[in-house]
Design a protein that fits this description.
This is RQC P-site tRNA stabilizing factor. With 87 residues, the chain is of the alpha+beta class. Helix 1 packs across helix 2. It has two helices and five strands.
């Protein structure tokens, strides 16, 4: 599954176009490597996503083409959440 679609289906990012833009800006990493929107993700991969002043690291648990809102959080496990300090 493409990373932009995973981010949308898992509801980490609400829109696929936004997920694509974030990926193409170099704010998403898979297993420590830069990920473009077309990069494929698989179960067990660690994703790091930079949202403004924080960085979230998750592990992919389930890949699904679509999911209900209530089940979206089961697609990943939150490993770490870091806040950046502004100077």
């Amino acid at each position: 599954m493409r990373i932009d679609k995973f981010l949308k289906v898992s509801r980490l990012i609400k829109r696929r176009t936004v997920a694509k833009d974030v990926s193409d800006q170099g704010r998403v990493w898979i297993n420590g490597r830069d990920a473009k929107a077309s990069t494929h993700v698989k179960v067990g991969d660690e994703l790091s996503i930079q949202f403004g002043q924080k960085k979230v690291t998750i592990r992919v648990e389930v890949l699904s083409e679509s999911t209900r809102k209530e089940d979206a959080a089961q697609m990943y496990t939150l490993l770490k959440e870091e806040a950046f300090q502004s100077e």
